[in-house]
Amino acid sequence: GDNFFKSVNYTIEVMCAEQFSAEKEKLRDVEAKILTKRAELSKFETEYREVLARFTEMTNKYAQEMQAIDELLKERNTIHASYTISPLKRNSSSSKISSPFNGSKSDEECPTIEKKPKDEKKSRDRTRRKKWFKIHLKVDKRKAC
User: Fold this and answer.
1) Which one in 9, 49, 54, 107 has a CA-CA gap of 20 to 30 Å to 21?
2) How far apart are CA 83 and CA 127, in angstroms?
3) Helix H or strand E segment including 132
4) Does the CA dihedral 66-72-76-81 come out positive or negative?
């Protein structure tokens, strides 16, 4: 652990002489201060250990919260990525473009592309640009869902 005062045995030799009375008083004062500091450090050690345990607990909680936030951010990014990938589904019964964002259509329908006359050979090679939140996406007309 940390360095706190530990129990120590010591021997003090004091020579009683009238000429050392001032030093004797200083020594008693210093000894009293040392005992006071030792008691304060004992109380501080207990408080320190409680605070250290609380700090460790809070550090662990912070790490768990950050991990949860990272997982939520990854989940959000995958959901955002799913918006940029729009699969096309050809529907032979309808020649309109249907959008999954229309309220009247079901969520399962994919947008279909208008069919051009067969004599236009270049129309098959072109790609159609589609906007989603000002993001230009190239959609190949030949790809099916």
Assistant:
1) 9
2) 19
3) strand 127-132
4) positive
Count the domains in the chain. Answer: 2
Alpha-carbon gap, residue 58 to 62, rounded angstroms: 6
pTM for the full predicted model: 0.37
Q: The domain containing residue 95 runs over which residues?
A: 87-145
